[in-house]
Design goal:
Layout lengths: L10 E3 L5 E3 L6 H15 L6 E5 L4 H6 L4 E5 L2 H14 L3 E3 L4 H7 L7 E2 L8 H10 L7 E5 L5 E2 L2 E2 L4 H11 L6
Parallel strand pairs: 2-6, 3-7, 4-5
Antiparallel strand pairs: 1-2, 4-7, 8-9
Helix pairs in contact: 1-5, 3-6, 4-5
Length: about 180
Amino acid sequence: MGGATTLNTSIVRAMNGKTVQITSTDAEGRMVMADAITYAIQKLQATKIIAVATLTGAMIKGLGKYVTGAMATSDELFNRFYQATHQAHETFWRMPVTSENYQAMSNTQYADLVNHSYDKYNPTGNSMAFLDNFTEGLPFLHIDIAGTAYIDDRGKGTMVKSIIEYCLLEGQYYEK
């Protein structure tokens, strides 16, 4: 999306060609993730997308600091990863994403999408809906570790064990 400074009301073109109206310069992480998703699909031929990030502070209010939140476009992908979290003994909960979330992220007359919606209802779903606009219809699981990444300002490696378990379940691991 370029290396220039953005301002509220800037419009940028994402790697996949969609235009995004910047409505919050604080939502820069999802802009980077959008291009990373496109890169994974176009350049690395990804067949599913699993993203782990501190996407929204709203996840902290929703689930606190002991339960990691997730949103998915595929029940199958979510269920397989959920199975992995049980094997890894990590706590995981699915949050909803609705058609209203997609509508909130396309509520602009100037671009294809906005990068942030000031709709106060389900902001985590809005963020997921934004990112799903870059998945080209592939199964997508976003794991939001905003509340669970740290204890006393120290990183915990949240979901690392679950990712390893998921890869083992799926037979997608590398041997040396």
